[in-house]
Amino acid sequence: MENDMKSILVADDEFSIRRNVADLLSPLGYQISVAKDGIEAIEKFRRESPQLVILDINMPHKTGMEVLVEIKKINKEVPVIMFTAFGNSERAIQAMKSGAYDYIEKPFDIDEFILIVTRALQFGSLLSELKQLRSAADSSQIRSTENDFIGKSPKMQEIFKLIGRVAPTNATVLIQGESGTGKELVADAIQRHSMLYDKPYVKINCGAISESLLESEIFGHEKGSFTGAFTQRKGLFEIADGGTVYLDEINSMPQSLQVKLLRVLQKQAFFRVGGDIPVTANVRIIASSNKDVKAEVDSGKFREDLYYRLNVVSINVPPLRERISDIYLLVEHFIAKFSPENKVIVPRETLNKLKKYNWPGNVRELENAIHSAIVTASNNVLNIENLSNDNQQEKEQVDYLNMVERGMSFKDVVNSVEKKIIFEALKKFDNNQSKAAEYLKMNRRLLYSRLKEWM
């Protein structure tokens, strides 16, 4: 058979995993060798030169990631499959960026596991084609942030893998998805894991600025080019020279600017507003859209030539309703973010209601709902009635009398409503207290004193 005598090294500190994998693969004609820790795995790899390695990420003495790096130094063409019990986006991205062929979560589906093993052996040469996609940056230089992706659903795992493959390249990326799905987080992860991670990274929302201002913001302007242009000003492309530019809501960019953006992609050159001398800038462009850009092309709203220039790599971020299995992980993440010192309990009833809701605002709406529930809760139990009306599928009305019947005083009820309103305003203005006070038409000192009482 084609797979006769093909050797596989399985490294895992769990005896049951080593035995189960051997029992699965040996009858298929593979020669299986096992290692119980990272050091033994490297020794056997050097001695036996297997054609495939299956590594557990968490192992004693040397972690799977450390073993992966050493294996790739010895023979970068050997495919490596990683085992992990955790759906951590940084680990997934880092594993793929470091040269892993794929990774599998425990417990794994047997048919899927065998299929991945077969493909890894058949297409081992693929790793040599992907070598230019691996980052030279040491993993210790990239730290996790509170904006890490959260998700174990298959769709999110595929996105993590794709980010890991595309991040170290200079390819232009088009990210598409509904509002609130986390497109900016995708862009941030690509930049953070790219070879330009320590270079300038600038962002602009193309749908939030008028056409005339947008052109000046992106390309800069010359002194005297329009009323108020008292000095020459560099645009984002000049500022980001050598780095990355993120263009959010690219579908909202006027066609007159689409032509100029196309010139940047084609020639890496542009003109400032009012200028006649071309300015060069070597930047990587990441763009995102909350609409289907191909449909925008078909309707004549977006240039077809620009679309194909931007769509070198396409990443489609799924709406939350298509990855309901991630709800609990996201809830835990937001609880830790907004209430790091308190242990908030999530009853099963609350979680079930969250899973049944359609979440038109996606992850952003869930985040706001959890934040609101935490700041208005009278105890450490995250009850469904604490969620905003807009976040309940049934559009339930808040029962203030019920809050009194549960032991809250009139003052406590009013205080909880006041907290909710103020915290939502702070969220709206990125915690800018002056803007929030102005928006609520309340004295800033009163807002400051209220926050001091609650903190």
Give the rounded overall mean pLDDT.
81
Count of runs of 4 or more consecutive helical residues: 20
Reading off the top of the CATH hierarchy, the class of the largest domain is best stated as: Alpha Beta
Alpha carbon gap, first and last residue: 69 Å
Oligomer: single chain
Q: From the coordinates shown, what is the CATH architecture of the largest domain?
A: 3-Layer(aba) Sandwich
- How does the major sheet shape up? 5 strands, parallel
Shape, principal axes of CA atoms:
flat
Q: CATH homologous superfamily of the largest domain - what is it?
A: P-loop containing nucleotide triphosphate hydrolases
| CATH domain fold name of the largest domain | Rossmann fold
Radius of gyration: 26 Å
Number of domains: 3
**Total E-strand runs:** 14
Q: Indicate the proportion of strand residues.
A: 5-15%
Please list the strands of the largest sheet in the order they lie side by side. Answer: 2-1-3-4-5
**Which stretches are poorly predicted, pLDDT < 50 over at least 5 residues?**
125-147, 386-397
- The helix content, as a percent range, equals 40-55%
Structural class: alpha/beta
Please describe what this structure looks like.
The chain has helices at 15-25, 38-48, 64-74, 89-97, 110-122, 126-129, 154-166, 183-192, 211-219, 236-239, 255-267, 293-298, 304-310, 327-338, 348-356, 362-376, 400-405, 410-428, 433-440, 444-454; strands spanning 7-11, 31-35, 52-56, 80-84, 102-105, 173-176, 201-205, 220-221, 233-234, 244-248, 269-270, 279-280, 284-289, 313-316. With 455 residues, it is α/β, with parallel strands linked by helices. The strands form 4 sheets. A 5-stranded parallel beta sheet has the order 2-1-3-4-5, with helices on both faces. The chain has a 5-stranded parallel beta sheet with strand order 7-10-13-6-14. A two-stranded antiparallel sheet has the order 8-9. The radius of gyration is 26 Å and the shape is flat. Residues 125-147 and 386-397 have low confidence and may be disordered.
